[in-house]
Amino acid sequence: MPTGRIVKALSGFYYVENENGIFQCRARGNFRKRKITPLVGDWVEFEAENRTDGYVLEVNTRINELVRPPIANVELAVIVFSAREPDFSTYLLDKFLVHIEANGIEAVICLTKTDLGVTEQTQKEAEVYERLGYQVLYTSQESKESADDVAEALQGRISVFAGQSGVGKSTLLNVIKPELHLETNPISRSLGRGKHTTRHVELIKLDEGTYVADTPGFSSLDFRGIEAASLSHLYPEMAALINDCRFRACTHLKEPGCAVKQAVEDGSIAQFRYESYKQFHDEIQSQKRRY
Hints:
The protein is α/β, with parallel strands linked by helices.
């Protein structure tokens, strides 16, 4: 029985790729009963009489699974933010990073539109993330040279491109591989954000073994599945200090003898990171009360 990877899901069809090409498949009839939904990125067992008439028979074990976008087995998340138009937002970047850390995915931060100018504040904030161990890449619009660093990070992996609308995700992919001709939309002046140009989840093949998903809906992030008690574990600088707090179940909010709060006071944890932690903690708690 052949094995392949789902590279696109559209209108109930799954497009499975292996060394013999791409096969259009439907899911096996009993999947719904077994509560199995094949996802883009899944390795699957399938059978196909021809290129357009196949069936996915079994979904292999996943290393991870994202809900928004619905994709599996992601190895790298490239979080794309612009230096200008729209302005860099550490709050939203932290939200992406928390979700990516929760799924055990490596993260690379990509700052686009640097040719429009990088403010001193944005530069300082980017350096905070670099000190935390995140790779930060800087690209200018349609510069092939600056896009080469991103292409190198993607090599040999399944990656997700994530970030606000209008920051230049599709533009960047077009620079890396011009023959993609991905649709791009200019930023809306009235709203200060771009329109989503991506309609479905699809793995785009950049090279042998190198795929990237330009995904819709990733900016709609909620905290279902993340517990307030484990939130600080998703901040590397806080996770390193958890055992130094006086109380084992320290929330790092009001407790005395908190190593995290002390680190914020002495400047070894950035104030803006701690502020996002507090906001996310509140969001998780209020979400818990709602559900």
